[in-house]
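wait is this the right file?? whatever heres the structure
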């Protein structure tokens, strides 16, 4: 299975919590998870993702490798989000998305279908 990871932005802790609660009330999706962390470091992001693969049946090593590759190949993006997180203050989280490629593609296509 192939995975994709992406930093999405900075959100208020309460906003992120509400988003996660709303997702929990909907039927389970196809394999996309959103995570939040208070620090924009590779270790912090990996730590926030580690609980997901076992419950999803994903390959933990491959998911972590995907995150590491993103971090190495997108240093400007990581730097930008690190600065935004610092500017946002203590009540904010860095939000990221991780999922298997098929699920992310399906989610994206359903979003396009809703807007057309």
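ok assuming it is, sequence goes like this
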């Amino acid at each position: 299975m192939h995975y994709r990871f992406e930093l999405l932005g900075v959100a208020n802790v309460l906003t992120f919590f509400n988003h996660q609660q709303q997702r929990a009330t909907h039927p389970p999706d196809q394999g996309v998870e959103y995570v939040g962390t208070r620090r924009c470091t590779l270790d912090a992001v990996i730590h926030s993702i580690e609980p997901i693969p076992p419950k999803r049946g994903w390959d933990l090593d491959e998911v972590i490798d995907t995150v590491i590759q993103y971090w190495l190949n997108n240093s400007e993006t990581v730097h930008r989000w690190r600065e935004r997180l610092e500017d946002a203050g203590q009540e904010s989280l860095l939000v990221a998305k991780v999922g298997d490629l098929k699920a992310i593609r399906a989610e994206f296509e359903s979003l396009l279908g809703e807007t057309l």
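The mean pLDDT is 88. so i think its the right one actually
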